[in-house]
Amino acid sequence: MHQDHELTFATAVASHRQAALSNAEETAHEYYQASLLSAIMQGVYDGTLSIGELLEHGDFGLGTFNALDGEMIVLDGVAYRLDGEGKANVASDTDLTPYAAVIKFRPTDALDLTNDVSKQAFEAQLDARAAERNLFYAVCFTGRIKHIKFRNVLRQDRPYKPLLEVVKSQAEFELHDVDGIILGFRCPDYAVGIGVPGYHLHFISSDRKTGGHVLDYTLASGRIEIDHTSSLHLELPETPAFSEANLTAGASEDSIQKAEGN
Amino acid sequence: MHQDHELTFATAVASHRQAALSNAEETAHEYYQASLLSAIMQGVYDGTLSIGELLEHGDFGLGTFNALDGEMIVLDGVAYRLDGEGKANVASDTDLTPYAAVIKFRPTDALDLTNDVSKQAFEAQLDARAAERNLFYAVCFTGRIKHIKFRNVLRQDRPYKPLLEVVKSQAEFELHDVDGIILGFRCPDYAVGIGVPGYHLHFISSDRKTGGHVLDYTLASGRIEIDHTSSLHLELPETPAFSEANLTAGASEDSIQKAEGN
Predict the structure, then answer these.
(1) What would the mean pLDDT of B29-58 be, rounded to a whole number?
(2) Residues of chain B with C-beta less than 8 angstroms from the C-beta of A27
(3) d(CA B232, CA B30)
(4) Most buried of A55, A168, A245, B252, CB within 10 angstroms?
(5) For A132, which of B134, B231, B243 is closest by C-beta distance?
(6) Which residues, 6+ apart, have CB-to-CB distance to B149 below 8 Å?
(7) At CA A232, angle to CA B183 and CA B252, rounded to 5?
(8) Are B39 and B245 in contact (CB under 8 A)?
(9) Structure ipTM
(10) How many CB atoms lie within 10 A of CB B127?
(11) Element (H, E) at A159
(12) Contacts of A24 (CB under 8 A, 6+ apart)
């Protein structure tokens, strides 16, 4: 029996929240993003922020690397490069990123998942859970994945093409019955151009050997943890390519959803 | 003779820049904003950030107060309320703001103005000066103003009407040949909904007795200082009114320009 619509909610992880509120952690509890998705859409694939600097602002998140050389996932303070062959490797602190978003992940809400649930049903349930729809949510699933489809961008050469062109030749992968982590952010609708409205999720297997940008999935069982924040930090690259980009042109919701495969 | 198009450029104030770069000041050199202009457009007029907290993040800027009770200007670390009678008074640290933007103003560029210049000509020149068009600029004029027209919003009662309704009954003022300060921000086009695309400027007289939200002006002579930043911090209010607002509806450029009188 396929029980898409039943999620079992567990107790909130209040202790984490307490920890987050103590020792001035709260002021650091911000969504920290390098550049804007609208810049990536326009082919601004070289940034100035190093992975080492990025990790000072968060231990959890996602992004990409300069020249669009693979997808990035940040988990437990480690940044992984998910390359064009689907392989995961720890990134160097000196690597640079043109776009990434991280947070010091301190979940305030958690739920256990015991039944198969599709992407659509899962995200609809999370939407209902994310009551403050104009804030930013971080979401992490850890457990058994029945099926996952993901893509990885491939390293680009100059002159860079816009992202919508690049993703036409992306590498796609599918896995069945794998243990892993799916994590990322839920951005409000108004944040189109800053990030991806709705869910932007990356995947890494539990053995840290494979992963990528999530296109579709069916979860089997595991635990979902949720965090949210009302503090946003955007660190824009001071580069000619960024300053010359037409960022209003890169901010349409339709084109972003196409590029991100939603 | 009316010499709109001649601005005399002075030496850059490099010493300020040096100061800004020392003692970790650079990391604090961010554009710090409470809430979003799209929320104000939708009538979200009550915020949770106090003026005292706001001033920890900047000594220069503009905004408004809860219930839209006057315009705000922040100059040399002091926040003034510019009320419905056009009068300026120092705001209380415990007053709250639903929308404000501040920066620790450390100009990196300055120019002397010796000829009359209209709003349009002045802003066109500043645009040329603001080469990195996708970053955020802070601008401050200090000197003689030939003519200025400004408006002040009036304290609202619940249920709040959208800003476009409110400004139909705003108080407007005009002054000629007055010494004063006009300051504010130049936001990139893509930041529509975050702030006002283009220039958002407030005015206070040199004697700190009158001021408001600038609608039009002709400058006579004085000094313009310019700062810019690639670091943005947005602090969103965790209130039901903010979370329930349709912020995509409040973000159209046309409606914002109408509300802000540009």
Answers:
(1) 97
(2) none
(3) 5
(4) A245
(5) B243
(6) B172, B173, B174, B214, B215, B216, B217
(7) 65
(8) yes
(9) 0.89
(10) 14
(11) none
(12) none
Tell me the whole-structure pTM to 2 decimals.
0.90
Chain A hits for B39, Cβ within 8 Å? 134
Using CA atoms, how far apart are residues B167 and A259, in angstroms rounded to an integer? 40
What single DSSP character describes residue A76? T
Distance between CA atoms of A261 and A246, rounded to whole angstroms?
22
- Is the Cβ of B21 closer than 8 Å to some Cβ of chain A? no
Please write the tens of the pLDDT for every residue from A68-84. Answer: 999 999 999 999 999 99
What burial class does residue B198 get, using C-beta atoms within 10 Å of its C-beta: 0-12 exposed, 13-18 middle, 19+ buried?
buried
Angle of CA points A54, B235, B248, to nearest 5°: 100
Q: Are B79 and B6 in contact (CB under 8 A)?
A: no
A213-246, pLDDT tens digit by residue?
A: 999 999 999 999 999 999 999 999 999 999 999 9
- DSSP count for chain B of H helices, then E strands: 8, 16
pLDDT at residue A19 greater than cutoff 60: no
Rounded-to-integer distance, Cα A219 and Cα A113, Å? 8
Tell me what percent of the residues of chain B surpass a pLDDT of 90.
77
Q: From the centroid of its chain, how far is CA B241? A: 24
| CA B171/CA B149 separation, integer angstroms | 11
Rg (CA), chain A: 17
Instruction: Please tell me which of the candidates B36, B38, B190 has its beta carbon nearest to residue A38.
Output: B190
E strand or H helix that includes residue A155: none
